[in-house]
Design brief:
Blueprint: H1 7-17, H2 19-25, H3 31-35, H4 50-53, H5 60-75, H6 82-95
Helix pairs in contact: 1-5
C-alpha cells in the first residue's frame, strides 16, 4: 500500500483502507490480556490515564497520524477511539524499555 499526504491524511488513509484488519485485530485477546492479573497491575506501563502519562511525550506528527487513523476508521463505521489505537503502541514502546 502506498500512502501520500501530511501525517493526518496518511493516518486517515491507513485507518480507512485497513479498517477491517484493524477491527479484526481487536477481536483477538492480546498476550497481556491473557496473562494480566488485575490485582498486581501491569507494572511495565506508566500509571494514570494515557492522556496524562503517555500522550504528552508523543510528537505532534505521530499524534496527527493516530488521530487520522481514528477518523479513517470512523468513515468506515469502525467504533474504535484514539485510546484503543494508542494502547497497543504504548505496550510496544514499553516492551522496548
Amino acid at each position: 500500500m502506498h500512502l501520500e499526504g501530511n501525517p493526518s491524511e496518511i493516518g486517515f488513509q491507513h485507518g480507512y483502507l485497513l479498517s477491517s484488519e484493524i477491527k479484526d485485530s481487536f477481536k483477538r485477546p492480546s498476550p497481556v490480556e491473557m496473562t494480566h492479573d488485575e490485582k498486581k497491575g501491569l507494572g511495565l506501563l506508566p500509571q494514570g490515564p494515557p492522556s496524562r502519562s503517555f500522550w504528552p511525550h508523543v510528537e505532534q506528527e505521530y499524534r496527527d497520524e493516530l488521530n487520522g487513523i481514528v477518523e479513517g476508521l470512523k468513515a468506515k463505521n469502525v467504533k474504535l477511539d484514539l485510546w484503543d489505537i494508542v494502547a497497543p503502541q504504548r505496550l510496544a514502546r514499553a516492551s522496548l524499555l
